[in-house]
Amino acid sequence: MRIALAGLATSHPYTDARTLSRHAELVVWEPDPERLARFSAEHPRAKVAGSLEEALAGRLDGVVLTVPNPQVPQALAQVLETGLPCFVNKPAAADRAQLDALDRLPIHDRVLSSSVLRFAPAFSGTRVDRDEVLAVRATVRHDVGLWATGYNAWQDTPGEGGGTMVTMGIHGVELLVALLGPDVRLAGAAGAKRHYTTLRSEDTGVMALRWDDGVTATVEILGVSESESYSVTLHKRDGTETIVIESGDDPVRNLGYEATIEAFLAMVGGAPSPVPWSETRAILDVLIRAREAC
């Protein structure tokens, strides 16, 4: 099996490669020499391609795409031309123009883009009786202090990577849509800088969501946090149930990275994406509307 890692723009493909390298030969393309050198030091047997076109040439079985958000539509278009299964590291779009560009692409049923948390063992088997649900809350704790130093400034820029509201908010929205479905709309959103004053976006945020059947939910984004954790709280008539996702002693497994790559490898084997693109698009639309509201 041969898998291309097209771009190393975030930390995720480095983690993905640790799982993929147990199953496949790796081809890597990344224009930033420092990022590429870091990857090659960990995976010296990976073949290095000089361009995206070169990475996609020859025999391949699948592609993991991780480029800055403004570059996703064009890069994904090139991947789609190959017909290969593709995992697009989150978020696939961070503003309206990017989402509109994705809407013009012929995205097939072996394209997956998702927060890895959907596949976390603590969450992936969760089912709810929505008739019993009154309201839901998702809480995202993930520190964004690295951005305050200027690292990966494109991620922190609202018109490029979406900032904290989009890049961290996707974890909460993804979990809620996984539980309650894609028939959701944004009811309101707000963000603020409470600690990291040099950010281009925000370090805290909140969204209010409503499903077509009347279920309401909130997403809390806490980008100032000493620890990383994610939770979903289900409020019911007879009490409250909380699901907690933490890294523990095996972050690759416990946060869902490993199972996400396993789902991608199933696509390489011919299976459709476990997350329909229509669902991914609903999540992206909520995030972009939240970004526009702030």
SSE topology sketch:
Blueprint: E1 2-6, H1 12-20, E2 25-29, H2 33-42, E3 47-48, H3 52-56, E4 62-65, H4 72-82, E5 86-88, H5 96-103, E6 111-112, E7 133-141, H6 153-156, H7 163-167, H8 169-180, E8 184-192, E9 204-211, E10 216-222, E11 229-236, E12 239-246, H9 251-254, H10 257-268, H11 277-293
Parallel strand pairs: 1-2, 1-4, 2-3, 4-5, 5-6, 7-10
Antiparallel strand pairs: 7-11, 8-9, 9-10, 11-12
Helix pairs in contact: 8-11
Kindly estimate the percentage of residues that lie in beta strands according to DSSP: 15-25%
Task: Compute the separation of the termini in Å.
Answer: 44 Å
What are the segments in which pLDDT stays under 50 over at least 5 consecutive residues? none
Number of helices: 11
What is CATH's topology name of the largest domain?
Answer: Dihydrodipicolinate Reductase, domain 2
Strand order of the largest sheet: 3-2-1-4-5-6
Q: Return the structural class.
A: alpha/beta
Largest sheet: 6 strands, parallel
Topology, number of strands: 12
CATH superfamily of the largest domain: Dihydrodipicolinate Reductase, domain 2
Write down the secondary-structure element order: EHEHEHEHEHEEHHHEEEEEHHH
What is the global morphology? globular
The total tally of domains equals 2
Task: Name the features.
single chain, 294 residues, alpha/beta, Rossmann fold, Dihydrodipicolinate Reductase, domain 2, 2 domains, 6-stranded parallel beta sheet, 6-stranded mixed beta sheet, 11 helices, 12 strands, globular
